[in-house]
Amino acid sequence: MGRYILRRAVQAVGTLLLVMLLLHLLTTVAIQLNGNPAQAFFGDKVATPAQIAAVEERFDLDDPCYDQVGNPCLGPFVERLGQYAQGDFGTNLRGREVADIVATAAPNTLRLFCIVLVTWLALGMVLGSVAARWRGSAGDHGIRLTSVLIDAFPVFVLLIVYRYVVAVPLHGWAEDTFGADSWPPYWFKPSFDPDHPWATVLVPGILLGLAGSAAFIRLVRASQLESYQGDHVRTARSKGLVERHVVVHHVVRNSSVPVVTAVGLTFAEALGGAVITEGLMNIYGMGGVLWGAVRDDDVSLVLGVVTLLAAVTVVVMIVVDIAYALLDPRIRYE
Amino acid sequence: MRQARIATFAAGAAAVALTVAGCSPSDTDDDAGPVTLETWISQDMDTLFPGDAGSYDPISVLDVVYDGLVRYDPETTEPYNYVAESIEPNDDNTVWTITIKPDLTFQNGEPVDAAAFARSWNYTADGDNGLYSNYFFSIIEGYDEMQPETDDDGNITAPGAADELSGVEVTDDLTLEVTLSSPFAGFATMLGYTGFFPIAQECLDDVEKCSTQPIGNGPFRVTEWQQSQELTAERWEDYPLEETPGYDAIHWTEYAAGETASWADFQADEIDLSFPPTAEVEAAKNDPELSQRYVEAPGAALTYLGFSLYTDGPWQDVEFRKAISMAIDREGIISSLGSGQATPADSWVVPGGVPGGEAGTCEWCVYDPEAAKAALEQAGGWPEGEKLQISLGDDDAEVEYFTAIGNSIEEVLGIPYELDILPSSDYFSTRSAQGFDGAFRNNWFPDYPLNENYLSFYAAGSEEDSQFGWYSEEFEDKLDEAAAAPSLDESVALYQEAEQILAEEFPTIPFRWSFSATYYSERLDNVVLNPFSGAPILRAIEITA
Question: Are A54 and B148 a contacting pair at CB < 8 A?
Fold first, then answer.
């Protein structure tokens, strides 16, 4: 097990370096083709060459390679790697620490993901298990129909309707009913409130989770059905174990491997992929930060954020692989 | 092991549930608490350092955190002395003596004196620091010596030789003598701009810190800024001057999508000032109760069309430019797009918004298809098979406007067009490198309320240095004459004459003025928009119970 983890860690570092180099090249080409971001700093004002040069220097864009299309700009890349090694993630185009940006945005995204995950697991495990346990029943068909409906409903529609149609009256109702000094009005606040992050991320998280739960329900159902037909379940039953024990210990547990895989994969995606939810509900999160950074050719910020996301993804994948071994006694890493 | 895992998960879920459902929010306002104005800014505000803050959001925040030498009358936009006791020019407007009111301090106790202004101006004027407002100081003697030297590729070869403006002299504690590099009658008007605010020595010692935790001399102190999320400023109890409102604090929520994103919160009574997204504009207008709590004012930002007068093409002929201008149905386009949140422009200086601004100076800004066709014919028509390229930056709302402009031109004159949409950094660098071929979008948001500010950027000194490829000696002479006029009024009148030259030579086509409007909550009173910036004047707002 120890050697396995070590091998995976070495692979991870390699993957990270590759991802960073690729990103560096892409953003560099973007600057070379799109023109220097220093120019955009002045907007409609016409800046003199000296002003542009000073701003380029201030934001580390003064390397002449950024003006030469096709130049891979390896100098600044190596320099940046050195800074990363020392824990310095640099600043964005306007001088704000990338570490500070991530420290503000990542917790919000993680909160959102926590709620989404709980929603997925709750809906997926319960409805999926019910559908598998009573396969072919009216309940099974009802759950399948519901999950198809949910899947067909885009998350942004759900959120826009919630924000503009449902949240405002609910918020007013909650304030009148429970008083302004209580939690319910915060749950239905139309926008995120950084002073009450958990309360205001709850409903958007549940909605986002709901929208993504259909795949989860189907996954749980399919993998449990397989377990129900497994030899170990038949053996357990023939040993005379009570049905509850069989379901919880032999079906649910054994069918968790694909579920854990899905959670791991979606986690990585959720970190950067909740752009729409974050944007609509005004949650300052990683998705929005990355979106803005790419739009503004903000090399340091794109690299800093994506490096972090890539690092998290790699770690999560290793954790998922280890979790397999814990969940399924047949899996052993040598 | 298994039980432990389940227990951990249960504990985690319980923790989330408790936090979400727990007792009660800690900092909810109760009736006896401070009265806080709830408003919005955009999420990309990145600095509150006066010399580096050039956009709407930091300017509106700094307006309550700092006081300048002058402030502007909300009705006429004319400057009046505020921190300054007096501002007097010499006979030819080259040397200005500024006296500062005694006994003023920063929020940290340091004196607001002549040195406080000098240190701020020197720091911003120093080109090596790369600050946004640097170019404002080019009017002061000694500016050039403070700029870095660059080679032909735009790389810095040597830092600026000087660290201080030779034209700024502290003659005593409260007196500054400012020597300009050329006469300028409107200098006093510039002094209310953010870039001219004073800074404390403590601020200069740690500029980075001061950019997020400003040490102002205005009526509000920034107490907390969770950058990109929210900003809070509380009233400074020891504020010595008179322009301070009756409420206790201002809380800005930062929105990624700007003002309209705050509309749902406004409807939920969480925000006091807001404007609806396009889809909701009609509903808000038709709400009889809500429309009582509405103010609007014309804005001062001009969107206009320029031509690549540095390339060969029909646009070299002034008649062609007139034809294009008269073929644009400004009224029709503006009323059908963006819910009419703009005003058709028929001048280069905002009418009524700044001294010297008058409507109707552009004779050919009226939609007149017949006259447009005649002018096109006189210009020799449009080359067969070619398309008029209209370049602009990547912005959805602007693309809509310029598609409509293109359609209007095509419909009236039969000139096919093509939109050339560029990422904004590319757009700006192409423009300054004279890289367009055809027409292109421009936008001007003035820095200080004087008609000169709408005109002086046309004076590039030569065709090569102008972003439009336009140069007129007569125009530049007129600007010089106006700058040297003995009084501001005479100066304003001469600038109007310069606008007239622009109107005759017609290098650019005015299209629309921005438009400002806001709805406000029931508890607000005396909500007035600054006619110049369009922002609500926070210092004037009253909050009732």
Answer: yes
